[in-house]
What we know:
homodimer, alpha/beta, Urease, subunit C, domain 1, 2 domains, eight-stranded parallel sheet, five-stranded mixed sheet, 34% helix, 21% strand
Amino acid sequence: MEARLSDLVVRRASMVFGYDQPGPLAVVIRGGLVERVVPDLGPEGASFGEAPELDAAGRAVVPGFVDAHTHLVFAGDRGDEFAARLAGRRYEAGGIMRTVGTTRSASSAALLRSLAERAAACLAGGTTTVEVKSGYGLDTATELRLLEVVASANADPSVAVELVPTFLGAHLDAGPGYIDRVIDEMLPAVAQAGLATCCDAFCDPGALTLDQSRRVLSAAQRYGMAIRIHAEELAHTGAARLAAELGCLSADHLVHATPEDAQALAGAGVVAVLLPATSFSLRSAYAPARMLLDAGVTLALASDCNPGTSYTSSMPFVIALACSAYGVTVAQAVRAATEGGARALGRHDIGHLRPGARGDLVVLRGSDWVDLAYRPGMPAVDSVVKDGRVVYRVGPPGQKPGSLQSVDE
Amino acid sequence: MEARLSDLVVRRASMVFGYDQPGPLAVVIRGGLVERVVPDLGPEGASFGEAPELDAAGRAVVPGFVDAHTHLVFAGDRGDEFAARLAGRRYEAGGIMRTVGTTRSASSAALLRSLAERAAACLAGGTTTVEVKSGYGLDTATELRLLEVVASANADPSVAVELVPTFLGAHLDAGPGYIDRVIDEMLPAVAQAGLATCCDAFCDPGALTLDQSRRVLSAAQRYGMAIRIHAEELAHTGAARLAAELGCLSADHLVHATPEDAQALAGAGVVAVLLPATSFSLRSAYAPARMLLDAGVTLALASDCNPGTSYTSSMPFVIALACSAYGVTVAQAVRAATEGGARALGRHDIGHLRPGARGDLVVLRGSDWVDLAYRPGMPAVDSVVKDGRVVYRVGPPGQKPGSLQSVDE
């Protein structure tokens, strides 16, 4: 995504997330940034100048979703493994290494093409910023190649969503000497080439030990990288406490987090990135979201999009699921899917629509953002604006024409 | 929906649900009915005559979904009640009677308009037949008016989905003498006008007693109507056993069904209509689907679309949720959402693609129908065919053009 900064006025929103005023409201974007959100007095009272307009036509507006945890760059899928798991059969060929195999043998052009397609699907679901982890290379050359593919997609003007790369060479312990190579070869190469400013580690039984995670993340910090960690997903390992100790931006999954973990995360300002779609797909336990909230932890919601355990990038689905499975309110879920995600990425310019924020927003289909959870599974997104440009709009559907007015971009 | 029976050949399907042959396959529809499903040998080997063609382009084909339990004709929504429930607040004004109030005061034209919009949303989710219950009238005039609105929608050629009306005057006990009026006034009027051939009763604490349900359903049988029952949703009442005793087409909800209930249903051939989206929205228990399956009960999956407890009509969402929450396989879920739904309506001409069936089918987005559950929340439907006509097709999306070839309808 190459920023093209535009002026735009989004007219006649029924409500704008983060603002209490009753609608209709207008969101005024200048030079790609939110200038102000004001009552929309209609044509006679309007004084928005010559900026292009998007008519929200009584629909609700929320910030663009910030999906802060995905594994979006890979080749192949594992639908057969998913089906076998549901049918109660063991699936011998399954697991991350299967995707590593297909990914290593895919060309960069093919990886770029599939990443761009997945990014377009993110956008159609209202996501304007999506984090993308490497981690299906597990050798120096392929890990670097995956991050280069993310950089290429980001530079492609047809990819409208912003991709935020994260280095996850530490996705698992891929054999003797592997963690040393992550630290001694991959990290310096990634840092030097500027391919990622953040490093993640998967600390869980079957992946990295707590000690290996500490080594990788501490090394990343020496290279000036921000750090994050997959924590307490399959078992309680102490990774959440490590996140607090090292000052991670986020601890992710947290299915097995304890109240003591929550206190540590809250005290250290570590964001809890919760991934309910993974529990949904694995038919496993859901993270203790309300306990974390009650402890004062900042929540983020993300899709975890990956071919093994959560092959969805739909943030409206994730929001609905968080309300049902976690029992958080719709406002808490929307905040976690926007500003919470931004915080997990160390970002303050996205995830909200206060003056000065990037002009990234979603015009929903409904007049109230409660529909994101009240109407689960229903199409939720009408239009998506990135940096003040309309980058996605539901076309005239096959069956019924939409009522959104066209605008010139 | 007015049947317009057409010829169509759906070409190059990767798989067709119910058929074991490897793709590519062609579904040949003549005069609106499935004639055969055969290997698609490509242009050189094709001998499909002059019929219009739809290129499935390597996507999977399933029968059109049969959503056998909805309350789709109503006015107003109750998103505020949904949000309040999530926030842990009591909502005094809630409940069915609130929708009864808004529905009674809505004009028939307004009810028809909103029903047609909801029917279009069903179609976009791959549903080609949807049952619609009355029950937000609760007086003779309004109950009849609601069924007339369903009949009007069915006669409207722009409504492509088939609507199957069910009389649910017995939605609750609306005061002294009400059940008598259902039996003595409404049932004969509905039967005489031919507005519904099936009668339902809501047997649960707060709605009808077992005895009231028995009276209503027995009376309906005397008018020659088929019968169904809302059973064991909020508590165990004996309604499932009543369904078996009276010979209901289906018993619906069954959250609290016991193994003895399952045996009775299986023995009497009563279909179990399960409504997981209701449990999802209410954050309540899920029905014991595997226990019912293991007892030999035929399962149907339906949306229960209504503004109070399940405001979704997305059958792909319902299928994904059934796999996650019930632990049924994707094949079991798809069968329940198609042929199971048809059986709950007493229909044999829909819900499958065997020769002689109606030419109602969905071309999915993915090459495998496992994606319905493997990719939850992602857009699932590419095209919908009803009686051999292409009635819905994803247009060129805002972001990326689809690869489906156009056909003349």
